[in-house]
Design a protein that fits this description.
about 375 residues, alpha/beta, Rossmann fold, three-stranded antiparallel beta sheet
Length: about 375
């Protein structure tokens, strides 16, 4: 196949492109090289350098209809990764997130559907954020998906979600694709819109499609510059400086961290799936890791001796827990996560230490503090 990869110079995109090329496919990459990800000097971006001479590349915004049209017309499949990412930032940059994520997907699909006779499959990167808090069990009311946590509960340091019917305690469950969709941030809303656009447009045109709901993707190559996403990168910079670290809530909030290589294999499997395979699938490890545990793992690798402050503060739009049910990915695509968190963190830290040690300016980057100040000024941190 020749695969059109939007956002193909990013963390996930660049690794997927190299894997596709390794397997004998061809790729056309489109990427805007946004400075929030690639820094102001994109030529120094390691993920851009990975792909720029490996295949055909187009530096353009996904909303550029002419650029998209020219690329789609030469390809057999589409992997749509281009998106603005960042839960907190999306809450006050609504127009940018909506225009890029929703508008860009509409531009892409407008051309894809005109080439329905050639395009074998469209795969879109969605997010676990579409579930909101995800799945829990109430002893009295069974399996349910609670609403976003109440500000009054969080301020009282009751961080766990409660049953919306009886206000009782809940037991966390892995979240399956059949769970209720309750996006709790602007970013999450746009990701749900992306996958629904793909489902409706491709479905009506008779084109095979897949939406992959990524959990928290991490690993070597992820942006160490973007302060709005990537807790591993943020903590790594602070630990390399032996700077103090603030942990929100009580540190027991958890995420499903999935290693980049496992995500790449999911992308390839979805692109190469049989035509009758359509739908959505979680891409995760199926294991929750608390932020406290994450800090412990990172600190051990970096020899961190700084102060860790558990502050009880809360960022609006954050969910409490995140654990994926991965059965659909296994049954539909034949994939499962292979890299455990301990091994993945070791690989990530070894890479991040080299990157940050080689660039003292990057290590001292103050943009994370600035991002927190932006959230506080807009009342998005309690």
């Amino acid at each position: 196949m020749r695969v059109f990869v939007t956002g193909g110079a990013g963390f996930i995109g660049s690794r997927t492109v190299l894997r596709l090329l390794e397997l004998g496919h061809d790729c056309v990459v489109l990427d805007s090289l946004h400075p929030q990800i690639h820094t102001a000097d994109a030529e120094q971006s390691p993920t851009w350098r990975m792909v720029k001479n490996a295949c055909q590349t187009i530096v353009a915004d996904v909303r550029d209809a002419a650029a998209v049209e020219g690329a789609v017309d030469r390809c057999d499949a589409v992997l749509h990764l281009a998106a603005e990412t960042g839960t907190g930032q999306s809450m006050y940059e609504l127009e940018r997130y909506t225009n890029v994520n929703v508008g860009g997907t509409a531009v892409l699909l407008g051309r894809v559907v005109q080439r329905r006779e050639r395009i074998r499959r469209v795969v879109v990167a969605s997010s676990r954020s579409v579930y909101g808090e995800g799945s829990y069990r109430c002893a009295a009311h069974g399996v349910l998906s609670p609403d976003s946590r109440l500000a009054t509960d969080v301020r009282a340091e009751h961080f766990e979600p409660l049953c919306p019917q009886c206000r009782g305690e809940l037991q966390l469950l892995p979240t399956a694709e059949s769970a209720a969709l309750r996006p709790a941030s602007v970013y999450a809303i746009t990701k749900l819109a992306q996958e629904q656009l793909v489902a409706v447009v491709c479905g009506s045109a008779g084109m095979p499609w897949f939406a992959l709901r990524y959990q928290n993707v991490y690993g070597p190559g992820q942006s160490l510059n973007n302060p709005y996403t990537g807790v591993l990168s943020i903590f790594s910079r602070l630990m390399m400086q032996q700077a103090d670290i603030e942990i929100f809530e009580d540190g027991l909030e958890s995420r499903d961290f999935v290693y980049i290589d496992d995500v790449v294999e999911a992308n390839v499997a979805a692109l190469c799936a049989d035509p009758e395979q359509v739908g959505v699938a979680n891409v995760g490890s199926g294991v929750g890791t608390s932020i406290n545990r994450l800090v412990e793992l990172l600190g051990a690798r970096y020899g961190y001796r700084g102060k860790v402050a558990i502050t009880g503060r809360y960022r609006h739009g954050d969910i409490r827990h995140n654990v994926a049910d991965t059965e659909a990915a296994a049954s539909l695509l034949g994939i499962q996560a292979r890299v455990q968190i301990e091994e993945g963190i070791a690989r990530f830290c070894d890479w991040a230490r080299r990157e940050l040690s080689a660039d003292p300016v990057k290590q001292q980057d103050a943009s994370y503090r600035k991002s927190l100040a932006e959230l506080e000024s807009r009342g998005l941190i309690s």
